[in-house]
Design the sequence.
């Protein structure tokens, strides 16, 4: 597929949407919408037989949702993928990790978005203060045993796709 032109159709501080005119391999033409968002870090904080999860209101869903801590740099900030993961863990949960192991790098939604993410396993956790952004003021943190986490997934109480993909990387790393 070849892009013949591209134009921005929307932008705000967190997202950019562009529309690309394309020519496919068979010569047919079309339009492709692309959502551009910065890469993010996702952390699986493991302690004993379970995980630390966060729950917050997710406006697009219109409901609260459980997930592993995750996020991207605030505009004007930056650093390595590991620094981002450590920053998100501390910001959202207050936890600091002695051990921080990279489990993988994934595409969020390659048919729609440029956004990718790194998955980290955090161990040797020490509590500390959170530093949540204003949009995270309603965030809650809870420790959930792995058996309880699996039950949450099975009964539809835990539906965050990136977190579930991250959990699959954790399961693969245990083999």
Sequence:
């Amino acid at each position: 597929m070849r892009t013949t032109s591209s134009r921005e159709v929307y932008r705000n501080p967190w997202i950019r949407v562009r529309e690309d005119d394309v020519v496919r391999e068979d010569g047919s033409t079309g339009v492709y919408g692309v959502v551009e968002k910065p890469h993010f870090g996702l952390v699986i904080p493991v302690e004993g037989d379970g995980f630390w999860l966060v729950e917050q209101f997710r406006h697009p869903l219109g409901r609260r949702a459980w997930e592993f801590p995750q996020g991207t740099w605030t505009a004007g900030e930056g650093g390595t993928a590991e620094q981002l993961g450590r920053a998100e863990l501390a910001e959202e949960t207050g936890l600091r990790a002695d051990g921080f192991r990279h489990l993988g790098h994934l595409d969020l939604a390659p048919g729609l978005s440029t956004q990718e993410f790194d998955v980290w396993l955090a161990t040797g956790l020490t509590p500390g203060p959170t530093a949540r952004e204003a949009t995270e003021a309603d965030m809650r943190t809870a420790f959930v045993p792995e058996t309880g986490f699996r039950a949450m997934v099975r009964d539809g109480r835990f539906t965050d796709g990136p977190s579930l993909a991250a959990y699959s990387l954790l399961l693969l790393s245990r083999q």
